[in-house]
Design a protein that fits this description.
Length: 266
């Protein structure tokens, strides 16, 4: 039963992504510019950090090789999240403006429906850039590549979980759109910055409010030198935050549905 349901959702997901991609390709020049625009912007960060580390070779143990691995990881996991879960970007806005009805009236899972409703096309460019960076700076043997792929998937799920949690706060407090966006921007900033530069308060912040440690510093350590304990820690954090994200979303959705029913009765 579970496997058949999973297979159905995978099939439906790829159908949604195909539709989103075909829709974006209607305007070919715009499509190409979207893909290359963000990739070029991220590539400029990579070039900037390369020159920076030539001037300052080590920042609290972090070197240019570490930074390029982080950029490869971040480019791919953000790209995957953006392309495959683009509908989550404005979840808080949909909540405050009561625009979720089209997703909750169908039998499919509401969170899945919202996530796959849009695809952020520039994410494809980020994925391509990340692959290029890993090919340039990563270990191209089979096991290291497999390790990198698994870590990338886990950190992508963490990005998904974090976005669901922050966007779903709008169920409970009302307008939280700007705050959710700023929290995600803060996380993105952490993942494109040498981790050795974070100390004190900012280090605490990366362990608590935003999961910067679990999508940047810890994954790079595992990619550089696989450690089973670090891997299990990352896996546990991924599972726990996923359960938390689903719980917060589902309970918030119940409040949303109850509110709509009350409005109808009035």
């Amino acid at each position: 039963m579970f496997l058949s349901t999973l297979a159905k959702y995978i099939k439906l997901s790829f159908l949604m992504f195909k539709i989103n991609l075909q829709s974006a390709m209607t305007y070919k020049i715009s499509f190409i510019m979207q893909i290359f625009g963000l990739a070029i912007g991220d590539a400029s960060f990579a070039v900037m950090w390369t020159f920076f580390f030539k001037r300052f070779p080590v920042i609290n143990g972090w070197q240019v090789h570490d930074m390029m691995l982080l950029m490869a990881l971040s480019s791919i996991n953000f790209g995957l999240f953006e392309f495959f879960s683009g509908g989550l970007w404005d979840l808080a806005h949909k909540i405050t403006t009561a625009e979720l009805d089209q997703h909750i009236i169908f039998p499919q899972n509401s969170l899945w429906s919202i996530s796959t409703s849009k695809s952020f096309i520039p994410g494809l460019g980020e994925i391509a850039l990340g692959i290029v960076l890993y090919c340039m700076f990563g270990n191209l043997s089979f096991l290291p590549i497999l390790n990198f792929v698994i870590i990338t998937l886990l950190t992508t799920i963490i990005l998904f979980n974090f976005n669901v949690i922050t966007q779903s706060i709008a169920f409970y407090v009302g307008n939280f759109e700007d705050a959710a966006e700023q929290l995600f921007v803060a996380l993105a900033f952490c993942t494109y910055t040498p981790q050795g530069s974070f100390t004190g308060f900012f280090k605490i912040l990366m362990f608590t409010v935003i999961p910067g440690f679990f999508v940047a510093e810890l994954p790079v350590q595992i990619i550089k030198s696989f450690n089973i304990y670090y891997f299990l820690l990352l896996l546990a954090f991924t599972i726990i935050t996923f359960i938390l994200a689903v719980f917060i979303f589902k309970n918030g959705l119940k409040k949303y549905e109850s509110g709509n029913l009350m409005n109808v009765k009035m």
